[in-house]
Amino acid sequence: MVKVMAVFDRLKSKFKSHYKGTIRFCGNYKSWNEARKASVGYDSDIILMKIKNSLMKVKLGAAIYERDPVSFDRIEYSWPLLADLMWTAARYKGYLNVLDFGGSLGTSYYQNRFFLANLPYVRWNVVEQEKFVECGKKHFEDGILHFYSRIDDCLSKNQINVAVLSSVIQYVEDPYATIKQIVCREISTLIIDRTPFIKEGDDILTIQYVPENIYPASYPCWFLNEYKFLSIFEDRYTLIAAEILPVDYSKLWKSKQKAQEKFLIFKLKNDQYVE
For residue 79, is pLDDT > 70? Predict the structure, then answer.
């Protein structure tokens, strides 16, 4: 089962009224187990129910947008993400089949569905923890949105042409193993969104604390060495775009290291499916 520490970190650059001065990162832990023991985690049923209830409002039209688990009256788009989804679809003549790793109950799909609606073919596949998959299948799965608990299960049933990892890889126990698993499957386009990196030194394992007005939780979070991370892609992919996102980690993390949150787009070097 995929161990996904999902993704409230991605909110802080967009919804400052909810997060201002409240998200914080503490510690430098030697192992994942040590950090897990010192944190609460994302697998609480309370958290799942809050996300489900917020997203259900969006599905039923009672809210415009949800970002785990806050409902909003307007959509805050990630324009680089949407642009890359449409770019991939254009290269495939309107075909878009997404693997959304750690995608909650389909937040990014609901965020972008207005723009995706006129494409000839759209399928959005979320890979998540078992309890999220069960909830997603029961309440949100339809002809477009689907849920899986394993990457291999998703790939075996779909011809995926874009993988999205939005503010998730830093919450996985072994982020490099997860990235290598996806890279070796040679998906046409890979999107790494809202992920914090450091330029120098070894990866740092902290605990991220979520503000209690969202839900009471904390979970391990990596600050990955950017050069080590990028080296995984070198043989198979070309980095075609990189953007520094407007998140000031100096106010969130008391560390001598300088962290930057980034959006990265990778294109497969030998993409055999594009004519």
Answer: yes
In sequence order, the β-bridge partners of residue 208 are 25, 219
pLDDT of residue 77: 83
Element (H, E) at 136: helix 130-139
Residue 67 counted as domain residue: no
The domain containing residue 201 runs over which residues? Answer: 8-41+77-268
Q: Is residue 61 part of a domain?
A: no
Q: How many structural domains compose the chain?
A: 1
For residues 235 and 242, what is the distance between their CA atoms, to the nearest angstrom? 18
Is residue 23 within 8 A of residue 211, CB to CB? The reply is: yes
- Pairwise CA distance, residues 263 & 167, whole Å: 10
The token pair at 160 is 């995926």
Whole-angstrom distance, CA of residue 216 vs CA of residue 132: 18
Check if the beta carbon of residue 95 is closer than 8 Å to that of residue 275.
no
Residue 49 in any domain: the answer is no
The pLDDT value given to residue 11: 37
> Which residues touch 177 (CB under 8 Å, ≥6 apart)?
none
The answer on pLDDT for 89 being more than 50 is: yes
| CATH code, domain carrying 104 | 3.40.50.150
